Amino acid sequence: MISNYHTHTRWCRHGTGEIEDYISKAIELGMKEIAITEHVPLKGNPDSSRMLFEEFNAYNREFDQVIEKYQEQINIIKGFEAEYYPEEMEWYRYLREVRGYELFVLGQHRSDRRGGIDYFAPKGEREIRLYGDKVIEGLSTGFFEILAHPDMFLTNHYNGRLDEVSKETMKKIFKTCEKENVPVEINANGFRTGRPYPNQDIFQISKEYDLRYLINADAHDPKALGDEYILEAERFAESLGIRADAFLKNLCEVCY
Ligand SMILES: [Zn+2]
Ligand SMILES: [Zn+2]
Asked: What digits encode the pLDDT tens for the residues 226-249?
C-alpha cells in the first residue's frame, strides 16, 4: 500500500500512538501519501471516545509540527473522519476552509450527534433504512470525499445471510457514490477487529455500479498501517475482481 486515507491516533482515546509515530511508520513502509483523519471533535463533546473539542488547538499545533518535520519525505494530508450531522456542517466547513483540514471521510457511526441510533448496535429494518438515508444525504452535500466502511451497519446485524433491506440500502448508497463520484472504502479494520465487514456479497453488489475504491487501514495503532489485514483487504478486492486506486487524487504522480 503506498497511500492511506483513514488514520486515527491516541487523540481519539481509543487509539494508540502519536501523530508522528504514524507518519514515521508510513515513511518506513514506503508510503507516498497519508491522511491523518482523526474522528472530528464536536462542541459539547457528545461522544466520550473522541478528541475533546477543547483539545483541537493543541492537536492542530502538534500536527503542524509533524508536517513541518516530514513534508519532504511524504505527502501528508490533514483530514477528519466525520458523521454527516447537518448542524455541524458549518464547523466542518470552517475546519476545511480556515484550518486546512481538506479531506473529510464520511463515517456514519451514529444517526445524530446527541445519541440517536448507534449503527454498531443490534438493529432492525428501520435503523438500516435510516443509516442509508443519512449516508445518502451526507454524500449528496458533495462535501465528503471518501465513504468509509459503507457496510459497517452489518455489525450486530449480519448473521450469515444478507436480508433484502440491507441489499436495497447498499444499492442506494452505491448509486449515490457513483453519482457523486465518491470512492468507496475497503476497510481493513473490519477484518482486523473480526467484524462482518467488508462483506463479500455487498461488494459483489457494488460491482453493478461504476465506482472507485480505496483500501484503507483505518489504523488505530501505527503497526496497523502495514499489518496482515491490509493484505487480507487486498486479497478480498482481488477475489472480487475489484481494482482499488493507488491514490485518492493524481497529485502524487506529479509530486514523485
Ligand atoms: Zn476510531
Ligand atoms: Zn469509522
From this structure: 999 999 999 999 999 999 999 999
Q: Which residue range(s) make up the domain with 46?
A: 3-255
pLDDT digits (tens, 9 = 90+) for 76-99: 999 999 999 999 999 999 999 999
Q: What 8-state DSSP symbol labels residue 167?
A: H
Ligand nearest to the CA of 219: 1
Farthest-apart Cα atoms in the chain, separation: 50
| C-alpha of residue 39 to centroid of ligand 1, in Å | 7
pLDDT digits (tens, 9 = 90+) for 107-130: 999 999 988 999 999 999 999 999
Confidence of residue 251 (pLDDT cuts 50, 70, 90): low
| AA identity, residue 29 | L
Grade residue 254 by pLDDT with cuts at 50, 70 and 90.
very low
Sort strands 110-112 and 103-106 into parallel, antiparallel or unpaired: unpaired
Query: Number of folded domains in the chain?
Result: 1
CA dihedral 157, 188, 239, 129 (to 10 degrees): 30
Cis peptide before 122 (omega within 30 of 0): no
Question: Which three cell numbers mark 57?
Answer: 488547538
Q: Using the mean position of ligand 2's atoms as its centre, give its distance from the Cα of residue 247 in Å.
A: 20
Q: How far does residue 91's CA lie from ligand 1's centre (Å)?
A: 20
pTM, entire model? 0.96
Q: Which has the closest alpha carbon to 222: 5, 35, 61, 23?
A: 23
CATH code at position 141: 3.20.20.140
Q: Are 155 and 120 in contact (CB under 8 A)?
A: yes
CA of 148 to the centre of ligand 2 (A): 6
Among the bound ligands, the one closest to the CA of 149: 2
- CA–centroid distance, 13 to ligand 1, in Å, is 9
